[in-house]
Design brief:
Strand order of the largest sheet: 1-2
Radius of gyration: 22 Å
Shape: globular
Low-confidence stretches: 210-220
Helix content: 40-55%
Number of strands: 2
Largest sheet: 2 strands, antiparallel
Length: about 475
């Protein structure tokens, strides 16, 4: 029998390469010392803190900040300061009322008091059985979702994984990308203590059916490009903006209670096939463009500029972990996850006001390369392109983001930089045959445009500017 220390070492080894070529590649800058610092701080977070920071179920983002900074080459000192900053707002871990085991694990779902017991339970499962069997047994099997018969219990674990603005998946995804079983266990435990807001969206029928177009929402049975789906949603009067209540945490659950079946019609149109490496690549690329357009273009208005929406930002930062999860799933489970995740993306778009995506306005109102105004060196006359002190627009942006105290911004910029590396060479005209208005203008610079607008909104603090913030008000006007 292993000791708790040995288990902790097995759960949090030194980081390993990601499991997919479509996952982010580490930036230069990390060292053995920074890797050791990362692991030490992850263990401390794992032992000391709960997954929620308060009784409103706001999430612990401490590990997210550490991973994003480490990936981008942060020093051990920066990692420690990120930990110290995040630790100030954390809630101490509590002892659960009783233990969780294989016979009772379904009995306390949704109860945050059992987080510690679920964490111990899933840690043991992962150490004993490994990733793939654990995922299949506790996330993808029929009996942990809707069961085989209508009268069966329905734990809806897929819905729980994607609950809480996708945080259980984000937690799990970090573990998969960096080879940390402890983070995977935290993600599964988080999923177990979340409630289910998507019973009308990720329904029994939705998980059971094959990809098909709804007769009420489409004119063809052929799988539809996601931009076509977005264009049709924008024209559907059933999904127009509805002013919600004051509690923005309830916007998504309330909208899905009433509009989930309509959103589901559209999610079913998407071709979620991931049965071959080529199909996986296409699905990951489609998701990358969809979430960036919703966040970056959906937040842009010619008359008032850019709104950095807090909810849409999570669509972007969660999406970077999709290839790391798909690498561990069977073909059927890949499809099940992709369809469910895409449905949640559409659901958040609708619940936050279904803002239009004015691609022509964004591309007409921003530029494809940005020059830093904050550092104007006097170059040697022999340098190339000496009139442009920022030959790569990403370098000053990422340096500034790495030192910014807002962990969500750092995660966002890391994701957008990764997508720019993968898809930045996409030419205008690639999407011209889709139904989304202005799609002929869309190209691979959308990732840089969204990244630069986001840092402008949050403030170039490294360069001495004031700190900004996210928008929490949605798009209902």
């Amino acid at each position: 029998m292993t000791s708790p220390t040995q288990d902790l070492d097995a759960l949090f080894p030194l980081p390993s390469p990601p499991p997919s070529a479509l996952s982010p590649s580490p930036f230069p800058g990390s060292t053995h010392e920074s890797a050791q610092t990362l692991v030490r701080l992850l263990k401390e977070n794992h032992v000391k803190f709960h997954c929620f920071v308060n009784d409103r179920r706001f999430h612990n983002h401490l590990a997210h900040h550490l991973f994003a900074a480490y990936h981008m080459g942060a020093s051990p000192k920066l990692l420690q300061e990120a930990f110290d900053l995040q630790a100030q707002s954390q809630r101490p871990a509590n002892k659960s009322p009783s233990t969780i085991d294989g016979s009772n694990w379904k009995e306390h779902l949704g109860d945050e008091d059992y987080y510690a017991s679920y964490l111990a339970f899933f840690s043991a499962q992962l150490l004993d059985d490994g990733l793939e069997p654990t995922f299949e047994k506790f996330i993808f099997a029929n009996d942990v979702n809707w069961g085989n018969m209508p009268e069966d219990p329905h734990p809806e674990m897929m819905s729980r994984l994607l609950a809480g603005l996708l945080h259980p998946f984000i937690q799990l995804g970090h573990g998969l990308e960096f080879g940390q079983l402890g983070m995977v266990a935290e993600g599964l435990a988080q999923a177990a203590v979340h409630t289910v807001p998507t019973s009308n969206l990720i329904s029994r029928e939705f998980l059971a059916t094959t990809v098909t177009s709804s007769p009420t929402a489409a004119t063809t049975s052929i799988p539809v490009h996601p931009f076509n789906i977005m264009a049709r949603i924008l024209k559907d009067p059933r999904l127009g903006p509805e002013k919600p209540g004051q509690d923005n945490q309830q916007w998504f659950p309330d909208a899905m209670k009433h509009r989930g079946p309509i959103v589901r019609e559209y999610a079913e149109m998407w071709d979620a096939d991931a049965s071959s490496p080529g199909a996986v690549s296409r699905r990951v690329e489609e998701i990358a463009f969809v979430v960036t357009v919703l966040y970056g273009v959906g937040g842009w208005r010619e008359d008032w500029g850019f709104t950095a929406d807090f909810f849409f930002m999570h669509l972007v930062t969660s999406s970077v972990f999709v290839p790391s999860l798909l690498a561990h799933l069977s073909a059927d489970s890949k499809r099940m996850f992709l369809r469910s995740y895409f449905a949640v993306i559409l659901g958040y778009w609708v619940s936050n006001g279904r803002p239009k995506v004015d691609i022509r306005s964004l591309f007409g109102g921003t530029v494809s390369r940005f020059t830093s105004l904050f550092l104007r060196p006097e170059p040697n006359p022999e340098v190339l392109d000496k009139g442009n002190p920022t030959p790569n627009s990403w370098f000053p942006l990422l340096q500034s983001a790495l030192m910014h105290p807002n962990e969500h911004l750092l995660k966002l910029e890391r994701t957008l930089a990764h997508y720019a590396a993968l898809y930045g060479r996409t030419p205008a005209g690639r999407f011209k045959d889709t139904e989304l208005e202005g799609s002929e203008k869309l190209d691979g610079t959308v990732f840089l445009r969204a990244a630069w607008l986001s840092l402008n909104k949050h403030g170039w603090m490294r360069e001495g500017f004031d700190r900004g913030d996210w928008n929490f008000e949605g798009f209902f006007d």
